[in-house]
């Protein structure tokens, strides 16, 4: 891993391949390795001629963690993506995020649109438009001493995923509170870049991609058949749709 500084934090990243840059932002409780390398994404993109830039998002993996919710806003994470481009001397890049990373990618496209060419927001959909996205069950699951005490199945899934990836659960609890704040839906109309919104057909966490894409001027939606939130990540059909979008 290499490191850069953003907003006073020491953040980790990895670069693989040669060619046009694409920046990848992983999902909540994941890491660059779990989201992009273990799923085969980095190899697929390298084979397609891309230079693949993969940070560990703040509070995740080898990046520095804090325990203040205010440090984990989507705007702060979008700023980290721009700071990494600056560190690497890249004027711009394509951008793909999954779940939390997709939220940060959309905010980056709103706030720093000139730095990104094409944007893929995957693992998000109609649920992002909900004003009330209660973080309580997941926060409680992350902070529980014993995961067997967690009765909420969805929250337990986040807890077990965090444990599998060796994460700082206290930092993740602060992060989850921040990313579950109401999303700036009205600002989606500001995005001027081509956007592909992707979600699995059975992804209850994301919801259907169409309603979200409809609010972005140059967006299209793509549904991955028969896949939920976790199984969409490395799906072949998802990869094919992204490569077709990037070729266009």
Shape: globular
Overall pLDDT score: 96
Rounded radius of gyration (Å): 17 Å
Q: Uncertain runs with pLDDT below 50, 5 residues or more?
A: none
Give the class from helix and strand content and strand pairing: alpha/beta
Count all strands and give the number: 8
Q: Helical percent range?
A: 25-40%
User: Element order, helices and strands?
Assistant: EEEHHEHEHEHHHEHEHH
Tally of alpha and pi helices: 10
From the N-terminal CA to the C-terminal CA, the straight-line distance is: 32 Å
Strand order of the largest sheet: 1-2-4-3-5-6-7-8
Strand percentage: 15-25%
Main beta-sheet strand count, sense and barrel state? 8 strands, mixed
Task: Describe the protein in words.
With 248 residues, the protein is α/β, with parallel strands linked by helices. Helix content is 37%, strand content 20%. It has 10 helices and 8 strands. It has helices at residues 32-37, 41-47, 74-88, 100-111, 136-143, 153-164, 169-179, 210-213, 229-232, 236-247; strands spanning 2-6, 9-16, 20-25, 50-55, 93-98, 116-122, 195-200, 219-224. An 8-stranded mixed beta sheet has the order 1-2-4-3-5-6-7-8, with helices on both faces. α5 crosses α6 (153-164) and α5 runs antiparallel to α7 (169-179). The protein is globular and about 50 Å long.
